[in-house]
Automatic annotation (TrEMBL), chain A:
Topology within the bilayer: Multi-pass membrane protein
Keywords: Cell membrane, Membrane, Transmembrane, Transmembrane helix, Transport
Gene Ontology terms describing biological process: transmembrane transport
Protein name per UniProt: ABC transporter permease
Compartments (UniProt record): Cell membrane
A single Gene Ontology CC term: plasma membrane
Pfam families: BPD_transp_1 (PF00528), BPD_transp_1_N (PF19300)
Family of this protein: Belongs to the binding-protein-dependent transport system permease family.
Main subcellular localisation: membrane
InterPro entries with a match to the protein in the record: BPD_transp_1_N, MetI-like, MetI-like_sf
Species: Streptomyces corynorhini
Positions of transmembrane segments: 12-30, 114-137, 149-176, 296-319
UniProtKB/TrEMBL annotation, chain B:
Domain (ABC transmembrane type-1): residue spans on this chain: 110-302
Listed name of the protein: ABC transporter permease
Classification of source organism: Bacteria, Bacillati, Actinomycetota, Actinomycetes, Kitasatosporales
Residues in coiled coil: none
One of the GO biological process terms: transmembrane transport
Organism whose genome encodes this protein: Streptomyces corynorhini
Segments of skewed composition (Polar residues): 336-346
Superkingdom of origin: Bacteria
Length: 329, 346
């Protein structure tokens, strides 16, 4: 177990290293002068040269990358000529536009993304697993057919279409809710929940199609196994078989997928955040790309990558814990 | 297979054991009304997209002319008339704020959508088949290296990387080509996985061994023996990739990093529509409806193609077999996930 975990974490670290090399090289090879971008439009040539010196952009790529990597683990100092500018331990550099530390900037945006992820997860688990179980229980009937068509239609439909239609219906026409604008949980929990309701439902419904398919498929597979046949032979009712025994076999893949998805969403639900104006990690990325704020772009990609890779490891661990037949190798 | 002439129909018989022949697949597809409807919708869409300049000429409009006289400047630019300004001159009304003709813009949007989606799918299939074949035929070291890279490509959120990539490409680069490359280069993992798995299975079959013994090199075996057998699974998978790529293009355009205005795109229209949905609901419903119908039709057709190529798939999912369940449990995935459409971004 410990050996497995170490192996997986080692692999994850390697993946992140490769990702950081790839993204850093791209960033370095990008057309346009990073020093000019960092300095701004109105900088004089001398000022640009000064910025180049401070950020070490004149150094060879490898040296720059080494500095960057070191900065992530032990922090980094930038010399402005007169003073030293310190960047704390997980140092991802400074934003070109706001001069904030990138790690701090991402940390500031994390609560909004987390709020979205947790609420949406509840929705997709309840709706998705519920739908999947229902269609497995009513297999062959009209309910299953209807649910299958709805699920198929929902699979692949972009999340912003659902979001736009919900906004149009709930906010513009029925006027049940005001147009969402993000309120931090720490400011006003009630307003926070009301404003997050629509984003939760949108992202939750969008993801739930996948869970419905998965739950239905794995429930049906479990139902075909020998021990279920034995339960049937003993006269256990269908409801108890599906609800208690089949569900137990069907849940491990759902749990694993859930860990993966949660990681992905925490890494930034770009589309949902942009649509609803939630100031989270995904929206930070889109804004940074528009402003060509490269350190922020690199930072967000690395953070998102870390979330996804870690979630992958957690998903495998959870799967093995939930289903004893799976051996960790 | 019919029982009439099984012995004489040797190629057909061989095809039935390996992969069903094209005629058989077509017959099975024809038997499903939903597949036919979906196919018809898509064929219509392709024709409309190809004929966009012609249809624009018939309507007498072009995608980029502003019509200030058709919008109500006192109300912020809402189209005059009902249903977003539908009239004999403007069949689907005009765009709020600018008065540009929506019918033509929708058609040109379909062109971009299909061009990028099909282009990206081609890139994905070429890379995926190459990597998958190399991994399946290569030695252990190459296989494990390529498999790790593939895992990485599958795991990373494609949209985030695509967004990041668009930041470092200069403005002069043609946008549709950039979208094709970005989506194509980032999303070939699934194809590579399937091709590798198929190659490993096929490699151990007699006809491949015979070719090897006959003196064919690895490359020749890959080209002459393996590629034809890989066609069926790859086509199936490509049918699932196209709608995913349509959504990816729409998503990037929605975020404002897709094609550049004034080139119309459905995703971009939806992004603009956010400020208009109370005053001009048509402007939301048109691109949303077009995108939904297109993706749904592709999904239905992809589903049907998969079942036609491998009818066991459908029955296995309906009844469920112990063998597939166990195998899936060992792999840590269920079989439904292998056949599920590619994931789209949130």
């Amino acid at each position: 177990m410990t050996r497995y975990l170490l192996k997986r974490l080692g692999g994850a670290l390697l993946v992140l290293l490769v990702l950081s090399v790839a993204i850093y090289t791209l960033f370095y090879l990008a057309p346009g002068d990073p020093a000019r971008l960092a300095c701004g439009e109105r900088c004089s040539t001398a000022q640009v040269a000064q910025v180049r010196e401070r950020l070490g952009l004149g150094d060879p790529v490898l040296t720059q990358y080494a500095h960057f990597l070191r900065g992530i683990f032990v922090g980094r100092d930038y010399s402005t000529g007169t003073a030293l500018l310190h960047c704390d331990a997980p140092c991802l550099g400074f934003s070109y536009k706001t001069d904030q530390q990138v790690s701090q900037l991402i940390l500031d945006r994390a609560p909004a993304t987390l709020s979205l992820a947790v609420g949406a997860m509840v929705v997709w688990l309840v709706v998705g697993v519920g739908t999947g179980l229902l269609s497995a229980l009513r297999r062959g009937g009209i309910t299953e057919r209807v649910l299958t068509v709805i699920t198929l239609a929902a699979t692949g439909t972009p999340v912003f279409i659902l979001g736009l239609l919900l906004l149009m219906l709930v906010c513009a026409y029925l006027q049940w809710l005001p147009f969402p604008s993000y309120v931090p949980l720490s400011d006003d929990p009630e307003q926070w929940a009301w404003n997050m309701l629509l984003p939760w439902l949108t992202l939750g419904f969008f993801e739930s199609a996948k869970y419905a398919r998965l739950t239905r498929g794995s429930t049906l597979e479990t139902l075909a196994e020998d021990h279920i046949r034995t339960f049937r032979a003993y006269g256990v009712g269908e409801r108890a078989i599906v609800g208690r025994h089949a569900l137990r076999g069907a849940l491990p893949p759902v749990i694993a997928l859930n860990a993966n998805d949660f990681g992905t969403v925490v890494g930034g639900a770009v589309l949902t955040e942009t649509l609803f104006g939630i100031p989270g990690i995904g929206k930070t990325l889109v804004d940074a790309v528009r402003l060509v704020d490269l350190p922020v772009v690199v930072g967000v990609v690395l953070v998102t990558g870390t979330m996804v890779v870690l979630a992958n490891v957690v998903a495998d661990l959870l799967y093995a814990t939930a289903d004893r037949r799976v051996a960790l190798r | 297979m019919t029982t009439s002439a099984p012995v004489l129909d040797a190629p057909g018989a061989a095809a039935a054991t390996a992969a069903p022949g094209a005629r058989q697949v077509w017959q099975r597809l024809r038997a499903r009304p939903s597949a036919l409807v979906a196919g018809g919708v898509l064929a219509l869409l392709v024709v409309l997209a190809l004929a966009a300049p012609l249809l624009a000429a018939i309507e007498g409009q072009d995608p980029n002319t502003y019509h200030d006289s058709l919008i109500d400047s006192a109300r912020g630019g809402v189209p005059l008339g009902s249903f977003g300004g539908v009239s004999g001159d403007h069949w689907l009304g005009v765009e709020p704020g600018t008065g540009r003709d929506l019918f033509v813009r929708m058609l040109y949007g379909a062109r971009i959508s299909l061009l990028v989606a099909v282009g990206a799918t081609v890139v994905q299939v070429v890379i995926g088949v190459t990597i998958g074949l190399a991994a399946g035929l290569g030695n252990r070291l190459l296989d494990s290296f390529l498999s790790r890279v593939t895992d990485l490509m599958v795991a990373l959120p494609m949209l985030v990387l695509a967004i990041a990539l668009t930041a470092v490409v200069s403005d002069g680069f043609p946008r549709p080509l950039l979208l094709i490359l970005v989506i194509g280069l980032l999303n070939w993992g699934g194809t590579a996985r399937i091709v590798r798995a198929q190659t490993l299975t096929l490699k151990s079959l007699d006809f491949v061994a015979a070719a090897r013994l006959g003196g064919s090199g690895r490359l020749r075996v890959a080209r002459r023996e393996l590629l034809p057998s890989l066609a069926a699974p790859v086509i199936t998978y490509a049918a699932i990739l196209v709608p995913t790529n349509i959504v990816n293009e729409a998503s990037l355009s929605f975020l404002g990093i897709g094609v550049k205005p004034p080139t119309p795109s459905w995703g971009q229209m939806l992004s603009n529509a956010q400020t208009w949905f109370r005053a001009d609901p048509m402007y939301v419903l048109l691109p949303a409806g077009a995108l939904f119908v297109t993706v749904f039709a592709f999904t239905v057709l992809g589903d049907a193609v998969r079942t036609a190529l491998d009818p066991r798939e459908a029955s296995r999912l309906r009844i469920g077999t112990r063998a597939s369940g166990r195998a899936a449990a060992r792999k840590g995935r269920t079989s439904d996930q292998n056949s599920a459409p590619e994931e789209t971004a949130s």
